[in-house]
Amino acid sequence: MSKTRFLLPKENSAAYQKIAELDQIGKTGSISESLQELIKIYASQLNGCVFCIDMHSKDALAKGETLQRVIGLVAWEEAVFYTAEERAVLAFTKEITLIHQGGVSDKTYQELQQYYNEKEIGELLVLIGTINLYNRIGITTLLQPKMD
Asked: Coiled coil where (predicted)?
């Protein structure tokens, strides 16, 4: 197992503070805390960021999310326990996170529009973009969660 390379909050606190401010904006929007955590877990799974998967899974469980839904995120497309709205958001999360594989499709965007207006879609975009940035920091610096 590799050792953490460096801690960005220590080495570049000004930049990290700006990222934290962006994260705070996402937390104060109209998207429910539960859905925010599902977004963060799923994007982190797609990116392979163990630190963020660990942190946001624990946060989701502490906020009342079920273990089944947290574990099932990796295969949400086959799972029956996510709502149509959540499925639209998870598809959006996947396509943004894997943007290099063809961007966000019209189909995904149109499904999302059934549940969200443009302001809310913008909030989702900021949430997804921010967790992707955190994932890149965690992966690059080899940030590891503490053992339970």
From this structure: none
Residue 9 in tokens: 């909050």
Cβ-proximal residues to 71 (8 Å cutoff; 6+ apart), any chain: none
Q: Which residues of 39-67 are buried (b: 16+ CB within 10 A; e: fewer)?
A: bbbbbbbbbebbbbbbbbbebbeeeebee
Q: Is residue 25 part of a domain?
A: yes
CB 145 within 8 A of CB 56: no
CATH of the domain at 20: 1.20.1290.10
Task: Look up the pTM and report it.
Answer: 0.95
Q: Which token pair is 16?
A: 């990290």
| Tokens standing for residue 3 | 């050792």
Find the domain containing 137 and state its range.
Answer: 13-141
Q: Give the model confidence (pLDDT) of 76-99 as tens digits.
A: 999 999 999 999 999 999 999 999
| 33's tokens | 């805390």
Inside any domain, residue 73: yes
Contact status, residue 97 vs residue 128, Cβ threshold 8 Å: yes
- For residue 102 the two structure tokens come to 């063809």
